Amino acid sequence: MSNYGIEASKRRAKKKAEREEQKLNEKPKSLKKKKLKAPNIDWAPLDNKNIDKIKFNSIDWNDESTTTHSQYLKEKLIDEDLHMQLLKMPPGSGKTAIAVETLGRIQEELDEKIPFVVISTRKSVEGLGWHRTIKWWNECYPDNQLKPEMITTVDKFKALCQHNQSKVKLMKSFNKNAILVLDEAHSYKNPTGQRAKQLQKLSMFKRLTLTATPLTNNQIDDIMSYLIMAGEYKNKSDFKRVSGLGDLIGFRGAYMIYDEDGRVNEFLWPYYNTMMEQWGKYLYRPDVNFRDLNMPEVDRQVIQLERSPELQSDMRSLASAKRKRMFDSSMDYYMEAIERLHNDKQRLNTLIEIIQKGNVIQPLIFYQNIPVKEVIEERLKKEHIHYQLVSGDTSLNDIDFDSDDPILIQYKSGSESIEFKHSNTSIFYQNQWSYFTFDQARGRNRRRGMEHEITHYNIIADDPLDERIYDSTELREELNEEMIQEAIDKAAEIYES
User: Fold this and answer.
1) What's the order of all strands across the beta sheet hosting 425-428?
2) Has residue 342 got a pLDDT over 90?
3) Residue 132 near residue 146, CB atoms below 8 Å
4) What are the two backbone dihedrals, phi and then psi, of residue 86, each rounded to the nearest 5 degrees?
5) SS3 of residue 433 by DSSP
6) Is residue 379 very low, low, confident or very high in pLDDT (cuts 50, 70, 90)?
7) Could you state, in order of their start, the residue ranges of all structural domains in the chain?
8) CB–CB of 206/236 below 8 Å?
9) What is the C-alpha to C-alpha distance for residues 426 and 458, in angstroms, rounded to an integer?
10) Which residue among 201, 209, 283, 400 has the highest number of C-beta atoms inside a 10 angstrom radius?
């Protein structure tokens, strides 16, 4: 039998000891609280010189797929005077264009310049999607120019609101008709998080919010968060007190509304129905015809790997080491199991085979954990395959978007706000816990106006852990640690039997 599990546990124990020793040797930080300086309002200029370097597909502002939606949003925000609208559309389907046209139509109707702030992610701003779209609007409508203020990250916005001096300065940039545009609105979902709390300091201004996946499994929690953002409730405590659904916070889905036979809970239903009616006022989820939107076709291919004798032996050894309590926690075992699954020769060979296909252009290779990235990098270097890397430290200015080379992308850093219009292949080498993150990643090379077909590959090991993670995306679930623990226990049983 392989001694892989014993060696893996020793390796992790050694790394942990090294980290603890490093902490002991670090100089203690000063306990004196530093006085925070007022941060500068660092607007991202619209006249970015890099815009002209990037290919841009012109937008038909009279197209029904943008005009109809922008007209609806304008009526809700201005004519019906609602405080917020949330636009839900799939990645790459044109949310930015609809938002820009909405702002243009509002400005046209009010016949005055509307100050608005676009708050987006750093990579979104660096990608110049907003800049390009607004610039195109201004070229088409010279008498109705949009002059936005751009804040490059949600955390920078949070910092501005936290300091009174910068908050006052920020508010002076607005008038009563000002609009906050929140790109990737899910970043503000947690009502007890600092981002959401700071946003509430600007509650007097209307919000146009955009996201592809507003809801996760915790449906009640998510809807509560958006209703607080819209001003229906003051905070989480107010929602729990008023809505009648406080006991359902934290439960996955809306399962508590129904009994085990699928019958409606007569007591909870009126409260649930009221919440959904409130939610319906602020959510705009238009039917999307991908053909009408000129979205490229996607060929989804799932590659199910066979379990090699070597992998079987190593996973059995890991299960044995776990049973003998040689890992500090189940998550330590999980991380080691994931690393071993992705270091499998068969999985790496499959990756190389896909990359080297004659019709593959700029394949996007998605991973989650650093050890998995290192495994992939080692193999790419061995095959003398030049690649690019997108991680938390990567500036988009350093990426060659026209290159045919593979791009190794960390889900967390590259699943949102970046467009790879040159790419025709995505390889989900490591499967993703979160359906939301996975759905965002699928949209990186599927954008409106692209003319070539796209192929998406999911590589799945013959293993309960990997299969469970993949299944969660098919079921549109957000995996939690409890669900992962169940998969771990199942894997241990299988490998030890």
Assistant:
1) 298-304, 454-460, 425-428, 364-367, 407-410, 388-390
2) yes
3) no
4) -115, 115
5) coil
6) very high
7) 51-284, 296-496
8) no
9) 9
10) 209
Tell me which residue has tokens 């990579």: 123
What is the dihedral angle through the alpha carbons of 255, 258, 262, 264, rounded to the nearest 10 degrees?
Answer: -150
How buried is residue 252: exposed, middle or buried, by Cβ count under 10 Å (0-12/13-18/19+)?
Answer: middle
Q: 3-state SS of 115-176?
A: CEEEECCHHHHHCCHHHHHHHHHHHHCCCCCCCCEEECCHHHHHHHHHCHHHHHHHHHCCCC
Q: Could you tell me how many helices (H) and strands (E) the chain has, helices first?
A: 19, 12
Superfamily of domain 51-284: Tandem AAA-ATPase domain (3.40.50.10810)
User: Which residue blocks in 324-463 are alpha helix, DSSP H?
Assistant: 330-342, 345-355, 370-382, 411-414, 435-442
Residue type, 176: K
CB 469 within 8 A of CB 432: yes
3-state secondary structure 441-494: HHCCCCCCCCCCCEEEEEEECCCHHHHHHHHHHHCCCECCHHHHHHHHHHHHHH
Q: Contact 217/173 with Cβ under 8 angstroms?
A: no
CA pair distance 494, 491, nearest whole angstrom: 5
Q: What is the mean pLDDT of residues 48-77?
A: 77
Burial class (CB in 10 A: 0-12, 13-18, 19+), 286: middle
Tokens linked to 374: 């290192």
Contact 100/64 with Cβ under 8 angstroms?
no
Write the burial class of residue 134 (CB in 10 Å: 0-12 exposed, 13-18 middle, 19+ buried). buried
Give the separation between CA 414 and CA 399, rounded to whole angstroms.
12
Q: Read off the pLDDT of residues 265-276 as tens digits, 9 standing for 90 and up.
A: 788 888 888 999
How far apart CA 120 and CA 196 sit, in angstroms, is: 14
Residue at 41: amino acid letter: I
- What are the tokens at 468? 């469970």
Whether residue 28 is predicted with pLDDT greater than 70 in this model: the reply is: no
Provide the mean pLDDT of the chain: 83
Q: In what order do the strands lie in the sheet with 206-211?
A: 149-151, 116-119, 179-182, 206-211, 84-88, 283-284
| Residues in the chain, overall count | 497
Q: Are 51-284 and 296-496 in the same CATH fold?
A: yes
Look at residue 439 and give its three-state secondary structure: helix
Q: Confidence class of residue 290 from pLDDT cuts 50, 70 and 90?
A: low
Q: What is the pLDDT of residues 425-456, one digit of tens each?
A: 999 999 988 887 888 888 888 777 677 889 99
**Stretch 333-351: mean pLDDT:** 92
**Which pLDDT score is estimated for 261?**
67
319 residue type, one letter: A
Domain 296-496 has CATH 3.40.50.720: no
